[in-house]
Design brief:
The complex is a heterodimer of chains A (231) and B (208). By secondary structure, chain A is of the alpha/beta class. Chain A has one domain: Glutaconate Coenzyme A-transferase, CATH 3.40.1080. Chain A is 20% helix and 27% strand. In chain A, α5 crosses α6. Chain B has 208 residues and is an alpha/beta fold. Chain B has one domain: Glutaconate Coenzyme A-transferase. A 9-stranded mixed beta sheet of chain B has the order 4-3-2-1-5-10-12-13-14, sandwiched between helices. Chain B has a 3-stranded mixed beta sheet with strand order 7-6-11, with no helix packed on it. Classes of the chains: A alpha/beta (231), B alpha/beta (208).
Chain lengths: 231, 208
């Protein structure tokens, strides 16, 4: 079985349809599947729902799909730094479901692990808890949150082998491992594809069972806040 | 009155040796500059890192290495990386001893509001709701009053909450309070601030 595809467009072939639900890795602009997002934009598919911690910036990441109005709903924890997002949300064009960051990560993890829901203290007593089941355990109140299963997961990793085993690099890991597990199909874009057997099996972050298609590409890896110390 | 750095320095005195700590964006980030001698703390960044180092020099900038404020940073010898699901497992699981974060409003019962202003500012809670619900101790560092000069320490919050009854201590530019039964306990005054002055600009009940 071949998991390696020649381009983002080829890797997405046959998988995209209007109204679909996509889980994306990345935090801010770090570790985002930028090539797959660009190819999704080019495909013209619309009315998408994204589970992604952020929505990119106006001209990078999921932001490019907001510009073209291909996104109907975002499930995110933080959407600052994106003027077009704010405009579409405040005008009612875009639906937004705020999830606390850890709740969003755990929803992906749970969905990928076959766990339909879990209880968490996060958000109790806030608007996040509205309409959710409350339950007390050992004198503390928790709310029920649902696992996420997406039609498609798109992630960015550093290296893959031909089996789809993935290794991430530094904080570019972030949401990618959890997102990878929660898609019915997962596509990973990576900086380098190495032959099977050349990654240390003890150091693989996402086992290839979760990863169905892999592409290698050149990544811009844009930096959102370039902060430096005096040398 | 304390400036931003003095507030950060005061917050740093709350750190204990061996703690794993999460610092929020803004003044809390400055706390790392004032960690007392002999106190060894490990900073967590909720995007997936323990052992956060200082900002990089120009030649050491790495797009794959940022903090939760999306700023470029560096790693240390002790650093470990992990995914967001594990990052919040350690937060929710109570492994992080303390979070120091900013706020828009704090109520006398420990309610915290710091994530949105309806119809005006919609950015999101990020990891703040998880942090305040999960960590051992929550310390808020913020200005005592808003731009209109009104108290940010309230009888009850007017903005949507980040957490209910979660704040343990508030450090403002005017002084330091513990959240206790019945309200706030004033435990320290900032340099040059009188007891009378701080009470005059505090809406919340001060119990002592």
């Amino acid at each position: 079985m071949n998991k390696i595809y020649g381009s983002a467009k080829e890797a997405l072939d046959g998988l995209l349809k209007d109204d679909m639900f996509i889980a994306a890795g990345g935090f801010g602009l770090c570790g985002i599947p930028e090539l797959l997002l660009e190819a999704i934009k080019e495909s013209g598919v619309k009315d998408l729902t994204f589970a992604s911690n952020n929505a990119g910036v106006d001209d990078f990441g999921i932001g490019i799909l907001l510009q073209t109005k291909q996104v109907r709903k975002m499930i995110s924890s933080y959407v600052g730094e994106n003027a077009e997002f704010m405009r579409q949300y405040l005008s009612g064009e875009l639906e937004l479901e705020f999830n606390p960051q850890g709740t969003l990560a755990e929803r992906m993890r749970a969905g990928g692990a076959g766990i339909p829901g879990f209880y968490t203290k996060t958000g109790v007593g806030t608007v996040i808890a509205d309409g959710k089941e409350h339950k007390d355990f050992d004198g503390e109140t928790y709310i029920l949150e649902r696992g996420i299963v997406a039609d498609l997961a798109i992630v960015k990793a550093w290296k893959a082998d031909e089996q789809g085993n993935l290794i991430y690099r530094k904080t570019a890991r972030n949401f990618n491992p959890a997102a990878a597990t929660c898609g019915k199909i997962c596509i990973a874009e990576v900086e380098e594809i190495v032959p099977t057997g050349s990654l240390d099996p003890d150091l693989i972050h996402t086992p290839g069972i979760y990863v169905h298609r892999v592409i290698k590409g050149d990544h811009e890896k844009r930096i959102e806040q370039r902060t430096v110390s005096a040398a | 009155m304390w400036d931003r750095n003095q507030m950060a320095a005061r917050a740093a005195k709350e750190l204990q040796d061996g703690w794993y700590v999460n610092l929020g964006i803004g003044i809390p980030t400055l706390v790392s500059n004032y960690i007392p001698e002999g106190v060894d703390v490990t900073l967590q960044s909720e995007n997936g890192m323990l052992g956060m180092g200082p900002f990089p020099t120009e030649d050491a900038i790495d797009a794959d290495l940022i903090n939760a404020g999306k700023q470029t940073i560096t790693e240390l010898d002790r650093t470990s990386y992990f995914g967001s699901e594990q990052s919040f497992a350690m937060i929710r699981g109570g492994k992080i001893a303390m979070a120091i974060l900013g706020a828009m409003e704090v109520a006398e019962n420990g309610d915290l509001a710091n994530w949105m202003i309806p119809k005006k500012l919609v950015k999101g809670m990020g990891g703040a709701m998880d942090l305040v619900a999960g960590v051992g101790r929550v310390v808020v560092v913020m200005d005592h009053t808003n731009k209109k000069g009104e108290s940010k320490l309230l009888k009850s919050c007017t903005l949507p909450l980040t957490g209910q009854g979660v704040v343990d201590m508030v450090i403002t530019n005017l002084g330091v309070f513990n959240v206790v039964e019945g309200g706030l306990e004033l435990i320290e005054l900032a340099d040059g601030v009188t007891d009378e002055e701080i009470r005059a600009v505090t809406e919340a009940t001060i119990v002592n």
